[in-house]
Specification:
This protein is 47% helix and 16% strand. The chain has 337 residues and is of the alpha/beta class.
Length: 337
Amino acid sequence: MVRIKDIAERAGVSTTTVSNVIHQKEGKVSPAVAEKIRKLIEEMGYIPSLSAQMLARDSSHIIGVVMGYSPQDALRSRNGLLAAGLIGYLEEAIHSEGYYMMLLTRRSIEEILQESRAWNFDGLIAFNLTQQEIESLHASYEKPLVLIDSYMERSIPDVCQVSSDEMGGGYQIGRYLLAQGHRHILFIVADNQESDRLRWLGFRQAMEEADVVDADAMRLSVSGDRAERLAQYEEKLPLLRQQTALCFSSDFHAVEAMNWLRAAGLEMPEELSVTGFDDMVYAKTAWPPLTTVHQSLDEKAQAAVRALADMISGVEPESNDVKTAVCVVERDSVRKI
């Protein structure tokens, strides 16, 4: 591997002079020496370090995207398709703004900071980090930072947050089920993520506005472990049979439960209506096709990249708390009663 030092020795100049030619800072280098160095670079097959080039420029045109869980964890959870879809849309949006994307999966904040400095990122977009991780990152990172689906308990100055209208989605699906005549409904949460809590709060608001008695009793929390979760469905089967509708906080768990309920002898939607949340691909391919709440990953990605591009340009975003719209998508898993 050819080093700058090797070229400097062959040219009879300092390594600083060679570095200046490589990075096109030739103000103090004579044209003859600069030409000699360029020829040696070509002859010796020198390949410059990309990270060094990034550091030498004011702008690298690279945006770092931090995914706050490992690929293995994503694949084992309901977040796999969400993460994959979001990353794809982020890459498209980042490219359309004239930047390149570098993906960083779950690692320590120290490693994230090292990577961002080594590649001279122009800014960071992060999702699925904890409040503590976000605060630690913000304390040491000096460039623009945008968060997706962070659900911060307290806001951080100069940080833009982008998320779906989770509470609004829960409210909409609650109102929809009420409009279909359902009153005996369970809202089922399996992961207890912050998004689930907000979806439940919106659903509960819809129930309370309709004067449904004891809305809090309509929430059922089950395990995040699949085997334990299915055992709970077995235990709770008498309770499930008493309902006319089950409202799940994610499509993943809704489709899983529909398969289990069918094996238990229940027909959907004839005996039991089911809804989900997110509108992932399996919502469309499930049987029956799943009524759900649609969130646009494309819109979320574009909003995050647009905010970051503005911040990089020194323009203050229109809002530091962006909520993207959601809507109910009606399919065949709910019947009117």
